[in-house]
Amino acid sequence: MTKLVEKAASLLREGAVIKVIGYEEGSNKTRPFFCEKAEDVERLIYNGRCTNNLAVYLTKPELLGSGKVAVVATVPTMRSIAQLVKENQLKEEKFLLLTVTKEDEVVEFSGFKEMNDYLADIQLVIDTKEQELINKLDGMNREQRWAFWQQELSSCFKCYACRAACPLCYCSRCVVEVNAPQWIEPWASPLGNMEWHINRAMHLAGRCTGCGACSDACPLGIPIHLLTHKMMEDIDRDFGATFNNSGNVLSTYKVEDKEDFIR
Amino acid sequence: MIKLEVIMDDNKIEFEPRIVAFVCNWCTYAGADLTGTSRLKYASNVKIVRFPCTGRIDFMLILKAFANGADGIIVSGCHPNDCHYTSGNFHARRRWIVFRNLLNFLGIDIARIRYSWVSAAEGAKWADLVNNTVADIRELGPYTEYQKVANYMEEHHD
């Protein structure tokens, strides 16, 4: 019995929480698991293959119920939670946050602040493969980049899995569903696909925590996470706002923001 | 949104850039008004759309202008510290910085979007801004790349 299973069992038995959101073994990979009964805790697992970002469920009250909920959070999940907290989307008393260290020890956070302190010591590392792709695109000329993205986005059929997987896409009414005026063509089309992905990226500007859930969810494997990840880089460079200390980049400003492009 | 008509001289088939200008009510629109009342001549390729503030200029409007046939876009408002609403232009400036980077990463031609500050007293600057933008876009040619994507239903022979 792992320490995580023990912890979850005691939490559920004592009634400290009504459910534990964690991971279980799926058919090919791990999958999210909402554990509500103490006898099911054996199914809970935690390892490097647990990649779903569970923070996506925390803004959906219908999934959480009326009691306290424990969340087994990976580092990317915690980053998303931190951003949600910053945006006043989560109630502290509603959640009990757990994580598992490399040594399989279970860490229980007393609150969001403690989680943020824990996160502060962990560097956000961009995957080398992803960085290479961003560098490759940066090295291309504009026409090549245009061709690359037109090619990639042409396969998008607007399933919005990227939106569903993203913890920070929590609007109850998304801009793509607004039809008066209709900003974005709802069917899959070269123009509508591009406009949708630009909207998605812009609405995540300065908010994306780089978990990559959007491209993991994409059934066609379009590297859409590059848009927001590149944006994170640009925002870091232009506004010096790193993940840990930024407010919401687009709702603040500095008088000295660069304006070399304004003539 | 109304499709912009192709402005074409009957006698010569020369490319006339179609420019859409998104301007704020308090500075640039008044500035453009001053250009007129000062009887300064400037290129007629521009269609001005008036907004309460640059902060109101949604990035989607810029994309919609391209999709509906604009070859170039002007975005202009009050100089920093002169915003009628104190900080609308500061917020807009941040959004433009982020948006420009994103568009550039996607391979959209950001040279076709011209940003400027034109105050209500700068009638001459407005005329120069329009003239220069028209000249630049004339050099770049029509934005067929984007229009092909926008009009994906139409057949293209080229």
Describe it.
Chain A is of the alpha/beta class and 263 residues long. Chain A folds into 2 domains: 118 residues, no CATH class; 124 residues, no CATH class. Chain A is built from 10 helices and 5 strands. A 5-stranded mixed sheet of chain A has the order 2-1-3-4-5, covered by helices on one side. The model of chain A has no long low-confidence stretch (mean pLDDT 92). By secondary structure, chain B is α/β, with parallel strands linked by helices. Chain B has a single domain, classed as Rossmann fold. Chain B contains 5 helices and 4 strands, in the order βαβαβαβαα. In chain B, strand 1, helix 1 and strand 2 form a beta-alpha-beta unit. The relative contact order of chain B is 0.22. The chains are: A alpha/beta (263), B alpha/beta (158). At the A-B interface, helix 6, helix 8 and helix 10 of A face helix 2, helix 3, strand 4 and helix 5 of B.
- CATH topology tier name of chain B: Rossmann fold
Which structural category fits the helices and strands of chain A?
A: alpha/beta
Main sheet properties of chain A:
5 strands, mixed
What multimeric state do the chains show? heterodimer
Strand order of the largest sheet of chain A: 2-1-3-4-5
CA radius of gyration of chain B is 16 Å
- Give the amount of beta strand of chain A, in percent: 5-15%
Helix proportion of chain A: 25-40%
Total strand segments of chain A: 5
Segments of chain B where pLDDT lies below 50 for 5+ residues? none
Distance between the termini of chain A: 66 Å
The low-confidence runs of chain A, each spanning 5 or more residues with pLDDT under 50, are none
Question: How does the overall form of chain B come out from the CA principal axes?
Answer: globular
- Largest interchain contact: A-B, 44 and 35 residues
The helix content of chain B, as a percent range, equals 25-40%
What string, H for helix and E for strand, traces the elements of chain B in order? EHEHEHEHH
Helix segment tally of chain A: 10
Kindly report the average pLDDT value of chain A.
Answer: 92
Query: End-to-end span of chain B in angstroms?
Result: 27 Å
CATH architecture of chain B: 3-Layer(aba) Sandwich
